[in-house]
Design a protein that fits this description.
Strand content: under 5%
Radius of gyration: 24 Å
Mean pLDDT: 80
Shape: elongated
CATH topology: MetI-like fold
CATH class: Mainly Alpha
Structural class: mainly alpha
Number of domains: 1
Largest sheet: 2 strands, antiparallel
Low-confidence stretches: 1-9
CATH superfamily: MetI-like
Number of strands: 2
Number of helices: 12
Helix content: 55-70%
CATH architecture: Orthogonal Bundle
Length: 309
C-alpha cells in the first residue's frame, strides 16, 4: 500500500504569493492615505468600463440621426416615448450620451496603444544606446534631438495629412512622437547599471547580450518607466483630442471626445452648452486621473520614500 503525499505549494511559491499580497496591501494603504488616487482610480475604472462595454450600455446608435430632435437639451424624451436623451442631442440629432460612451473607447485605445508603440521603440533604443555607447549612442540620440527640434503637433498634422485619418495611423504617429522620452530615460538608467556588480556577474557567467539587456537590466528600470507611461497616457489622450478637434484624427463616422468638441464650436453662440460641456468634462477628468495616478506611482515606487514597515 502506497501513500501519496501532495504538496499544496512549494515554499518559493508561498513566499512569492505572500510578497505579492504584502505589496498589494501596502499599495492599497498608500493610496487610501493619499486619498486623491482613490478618486482617480474610480474615474479610470468608470472610463474603462465605458470603453469596454460602451456598445452594450449605450442607449442608442451613436450615428443615428434624428433631425426632428436636433439640439435637444438634456433629459429630452422622444415623441414616441421610446428614447430618452439624457445628455441631449447634437446638431444632427445624435444622442450625446451614446457618442460619449463610444468616444471613451477611442481615447483609451489610442492612448494605451500609442504608449505601447512608443514605449517599445524607446526602450529598445535606450537599452542599445546606453549599453553599447559609441556611434550607436550618437546616432540614436541625434535622431531624438532632430525630432525634438520640431513642434510635435506640427509633425503629427503633417504625417496625418499624408497618411490620412484613421485609428492605426493616429496610433503610429502618436507612438513615434513619444519614443524619445522612453529612450532617454532607459539610456540614463542603463548607463548607471551596466557597470554594477550584478550586471558584471551576468556577463562573467556567459549570459548573452540579449539576456543581460532584457533579463538583468530591464527589470530594474520598470519603475520609472511605469511612472512615465502613466503621465504619457494623459498627454496622448490630449493630443488625440486636439487632432480630432482639427479633423485629422479618426474618420468622421467614429465618435471621439475631440470631434464632439469640434462639432460644438458653431453651437456655443446659440447657448447649446451641453455639446461642449460633457466631452470637455470627460477629457479633463480622464487626463487629471492619469496625472494623479502617475504622481502617486512616482512617490510609491521611489525607494527613498517607500516604507515597507
Amino acid at each position: 500500500m502506497s501513500v501519496q503525499v501532495h504538496e499544496s505549494s512549494s515554499p518559493a511559491t508561498a513566499r512569492s504569493r505572500s510578497g505579492f499580497g504584502k505589496a498589494l496591501r501596502h499599495a492599497g494603504r498608500s493610496m487610501i492615505a493619499a486619498r486623491w488616487p482613490v478618486l482617480a482610480l474610480l474615474v479610470l475604472v468608470v472610463v474603462s468600463i465605458s470603453a469596454m462595454f460602451g456598445p452594450r450600455i449605450a442607449p442608442l446608435d451613436p450615428n443615428r440621426q434624428n433631425i426632428m430632435l436636433r439640439l435637444a437639451p438634456p433629459m429630452t424624451v422622444a415623441k414616441d416615448g421610446k428614447a430618452v436623451h439624457v445628455l441631449g442631442t447634437d446638431g444632427l440629432g445624435r444622442d450625446v450620451l451614446s457618442r460619449l460612451l463610444y468616444g471613451a473607447r477611442v481615447s483609451l485605445l489610442v492612448g494605451v496603444a500609442a504608449i505601447v508603440v512608443g514605449g517599445t521603440i524607446g526602450v529598445l533604443g535606450g537599452l542599445v544606446s546606453g549599453y553599447f555607447g559609441g556611434w550607436i549612442d550618437d546616432v540614436i540620440m541625434r535622431l531624438g534631438d532632430i525630432q525634438l527640434a520640431f513642434p510635435f503637433i506640427l509633425l503629427a498634422i503633417l504625417f496625418l495629412i499624408v497618411l490620412g485619418p484613421g485609428v492605426v495611423n493616429l496610433v503610429l504617429v502618436l507612438g513615434i512622437g513619444q519614443w524619445i522620452t522612453y529612450a532617454r530615460i532607459v539610456r540614463a538608467q542603463t548607463l548607471s547599471l551596466r557597470e554594477k556588480e550584478f550586471v558584471e556577474a551576468a556577463r562573467a557567467l556567459g549570459d548573452p547580450t540579449t539576456s543581460v539587456l532584457f533579463r538583468t537590466i530591464l527589470p530594474n528600470i520598470i519603475a520609472p518607466l511605469t511612472v512615465v507611461a502613466s503621465f504619457n497616457v494623459a498627454s496622448v489622450i490630449l493630443s488625440e483630442a486636439s487632432l480630432s478637434f482639427l479633423g485629422l484624427g479618426v474618420p468622421a463616422t467614429v465618435p471621439t471626445w475631440g470631434s464632439m468638441l469640434a462639432e460644438s464650436r458653431d453651437q456655443l453662440i446659440a447657448n447649446k452648452w451641453w455639446l461642449a460641456l460633457y466631452p470637455g468634462i470627460a477629457i479633463v477628468a480622464t487626463v487629471l486621473a492619469f496625472n494623479i495616478m502617475g504622481d502617486w506611482l512616482r512617490d510609491f515606487l521611489d525607494p527613498r520614500l517607500k516604507e515597507l514597515g
